[in-house]
Batch of 4 targets.
Target 1
Amino acid sequence: MDKFTAMQAFIRVVEAGNFSKAADTLEMPKPTVTRLIQSLESQLQTKLLNRTTRRVTVTQDGAAYYERALRVLNDIEELESGMSHAKANPRGRLRIDVSASLGCLVLIPALPDFHARYPDIQIDLGVTDRPVDLIGENIDCVLRAGVISDQSLVARRVAEVYYINAASPDYLKRHGRPQHPNDLERGNGHRVVGYFSARTGRMTTMDYVKGDERLEIDGHTLVAVNDSNAYVAAAVAGMGVLQAPSFMLQEHLNRGELEIVLADWCSDPIPLHVVYPPNRHLSAKLRVFVDWVAELFAKHDLLQRCSSLPAEHARIPGAGFTRDAAGARSATWSPAPAQSPPESPLRPQASAV
């Protein structure tokens, strides 16, 4: 028996809660994982796990062995990553999870730069709006916007996400342009694209700030989705007003598929974090990825201010104008000061849930 592999398998079974999920994350057949645990128990002459048809739990001896084994494996990883060659040339696999829109629009287009710097790091990228279990699914880190509800997680704030309101020209032609957030309530002639949590099914509200006035709007919804890309697609199709991060809407605004509405109302910016489990040693490969993400987002226009929207769409008094390398004119504006963000399924919490 390979003691090192058996320890890794045991730790994964404990964290995943069953043999099937552990086998998947280890990329081993389930019978192999079962044999490794049986061999480990036989060599130690003690029962480490209680097995049922639905769940695996650790015995008292198993809990003690888990803590010591985890410490040993972390020490080995720290020793290896501490070597000068490993620091200069980090290698290995990183399992990252990111929301669909942030992954497709920001992270993935920049990955060639990361791999040019670190060609020996393989990234397994989960792209989903579904909340993930960092430990149970063996994920090294996640990129998530929102409040950190689990204070045991380690989080680094790398940017802020700014929300704006928009609708398609076809929708505005049929329903007119809303003048106040209350216009979006049921019975006032407008409708919104709904977004509901994939985990709880709870519908999100739309939050507005103007001076000292703060509103939470439960809009009139005819269609609701639980995916950020589908959310934008429904608005482009003319199904209603949406409130979404500026980086998700910029290109649709540039192409005239959406237009800004309620420009004098904003919502609070939402912090964006890189989050990883507390029992996961910050290896050289994870450290360089976290630093690279922070650098990438620090340079990203739409993660540092609201938008570079076309002037004819922005309609914001006092907006300035800039031109890009191709000579295209765009309006710039700044958000209201940051407040504590409200919990919302559209603004996923960075928690191991």
Target 2
Amino acid sequence: MSLMEEVYDHLNKNAFVETAEEFSTDWCWRSRSWYAVQKNKKSDFSIPVAINCLNKVKIKIALACIKRKKFGGIVESDIAVLGEVRDRLERYLLEEHRIAEVAEDEAPPAKC
């Protein structure tokens, strides 16, 4: 199973995405059919798509950290799930493409 499929499955099982189309457009910034095409071709994330997805994950983590201030520990599981996805994407970029870090315009808090 590709990392792309693992990330989608993990996000789907934890209710962050409902459909592959949503994952394609909202998380990877691609067309609605992108995930289906990539899966059919047995492809994985390209560098730009992995970075797009990583950025979305980091934004979701930052938002969850803000929610934690209001709702307490109720969002801890969301932060943990998103943290796992972030770690997988960062490891993929490092091991497969030798990208050690992705620069950001405004860095959300890495840890909250």
Target 3
Amino acid sequence: MKKELIITPEVQAIVDAIKNTGKSWHEATLPDHPLYPQFARKLVVTGFNTPDMEGDEDRIYVNIRQYLIIRDSNIIHKRLKMPDWMIHEGNVEEIMGKTGVLKGINRTTDDNGQIIEEKETVLKAQSVQYVRYLIKSKAENLVDILERFIGLYISLFDEEINEI
């Protein structure tokens, strides 16, 4: 007796894509290092976690490594541990809508209710709560969020990233 699994090419493509998905959550290519141009460089998000939900902290810890890849052979030469990226309760982010950042009007009035001044302002939310909202509401998936925030990590840790 012979058993055989028969699937359509479309289903096989999905199965193959699952098998070929890498281990990282997100990768970002870095520019060439001025002293080590023989390496292609990238930052790789290897993991993330949050502390005890019962405590007072409201933080997300993102684990990042830098990969140095030999250009000629495309072989990973070294994986460097980078500083963990801590997104904490004090961070705020601009709230994004479908057409860009969401804005409101800051209005100042006198005691009689007369408008003295109106200024357009960008709306912001507490970072950790905003990330949770984006994921839970399915407004964005985790990869999109990491892609948007990795530029901030690069600017915060530029010195450590280039200290290879």
Target 4
Amino acid sequence: MFLSLLATLAVLGQAPATSEAPLTVLIAPPEAAGVPSHIVSFAQEHVYEQLKTQGLQVVRASELSQRLPPAQRKTVLGCNRLEAACRITLGEAAQADVVMITELVQFLSGYRVGLKAYATRDGEQLAEHYVPGVREDQLLDALTQASDKVVPPVRQALRPSSVPVVEAPPPLLPPVPPKPEVTASRSGAPGWAWLPAAGGAVLLGVGTVFYVQASNDYKALKDLRVTDPEDGARLRDSGKRSQLLSQVAYGVGAAGVVTTGLIYLLSGKDKGAPMQVRPTVSVGNGGGMLGVAGTLP
């Protein structure tokens, strides 16, 4: 029993850690020449809060300044952030994986708001996003949009195992319209008998458009042609919606075409008791089939 306990402890000691530490991000001093200082401070604090809500460990430039000896503060925080060596120095000083730089440029048409992310290991850019023509009262929304666009590719590059995978839905099957049961009686064909067929033809065309759209969404998900999890979820929902709409359009359109056919088929006969006639519609990979089953006079 003692030997079994030792063996269990040895195995546990050799088991690798499965959880990864969250990404640490340094919010470096911004690029905001000529922008009022209170707007810059407000923007930096909003970026800080947005990154925190996305599960990142965030270090402010002011917090980094307090960590550094006075002799190093000017050298580290005052370096040229356009150079990769400066971004590496900033990231290493903050012990961060990513250096995030906010950009605010003021034009006559409004601000251009940008957010850029760089890897500490080599100072190279991982992602960026810009929003032009932003009014002052829209700055927070623009910074939120930039944060939502920049964080997913950063995670994909540095923590790929933590990025959720959007599963593709099962392969689309050709829509099978319902089989409506129509009660027809012998009578003369009215002047508007062509209307159901016209509407049915339009709906069949609409159903084909939705079916093609659903197939395209499925192929995009299957080939992983998505930029982030939100884009994948949007494609999945769009494909499900298009598939449902195509089925409804095929069913109603087929019923309209069959109804017009029955009206003309039974027109000009003597009036009699109603007859039960069942139109059948089926759609396959190579085309479709329309038929009528029943007892004719």
